[in-house]
């Protein structure tokens, strides 16, 4: 996770620090630490896939996706919204299983709950280029 290309941030310093920490965890591909980011009854929509309901199912979905890549890191471009609901524009830098890399733009809309966990995450991305040779 990097902020080198960040052009705009509308979040409080506290929420922005949480966001940077969350994306560091997300980039780790570690199911145990990722697990703690999501509310028990959270929902994630990833690209054009159907919504995934519940923290355990979300982690299972990400674990499956992680088997298709070597890794990734997010570079923040802009953050718009308020501390309880915001959109994060990023470039996701994927490392494929063959060690080649590709940067893909994405926007993720995050809604938080009162326990400071992700209640809803909607990831707008076209990952088709990731699997092109």
Q: Which helices and strands appear, and what pairs or packs with what?
A:
Blueprint: E1 8-9, H1 13-27, H2 31-35, E2 38-46, E3 52-53, H3 55-66, E4 71-82, E5 85-95, E6 101-112, E7 118-124
Parallel strand pairs: 1-4, 2-7
Antiparallel strand pairs: 2-3, 4-5, 5-6, 6-7
Q: What would you say this structure looks like, in words?
A:
With 133 residues, the chain is of the alpha/beta class. It has a single domain, classed as Roll (Nuclear Transport Factor 2, Chain: A). Helix content is 24%, strand content 41%. The protein contains 3 helices and 7 strands; from the N terminus they run βααββαββββ. The protein has a 7-stranded mixed β-sheet with strand order 1-4-5-6-7-2-3, covered by helices on one side. Strand 2 and strand 3 form a beta hairpin. The longest helix is centred in the first third of the chain and has 15 residues. The two termini are 26 Å apart.
- Tell me what the CATH architecture is: Roll
- How confident overall, as mean pLDDT? 96
Question: In the CATH hierarchy, what is the class?
Answer: Alpha Beta
Q: What is the overall shape? A: globular
Distance between the termini: 26 Å
Number of helical stretches of at least 4 residues:
3
The structural domain count equals: 1
> What topology, given as strand order, has the largest sheet?
1-4-5-6-7-2-3
CATH topology-level fold name:
Nuclear Transport Factor 2, Chain: A
Low-confidence stretches: none
Radius of gyration (CA) equals 14 Å
Helical/strand content category: alpha/beta
Order of helices and strands: EHHEEHEEEE
Largest sheet features: 7 strands, mixed
How many runs of DSSP E, i.e. beta strands?
Answer: 7
Give the proportion of residues in helices: 10-25%
Q: Which strand-content bin applies to the residues?
A: 35-45%
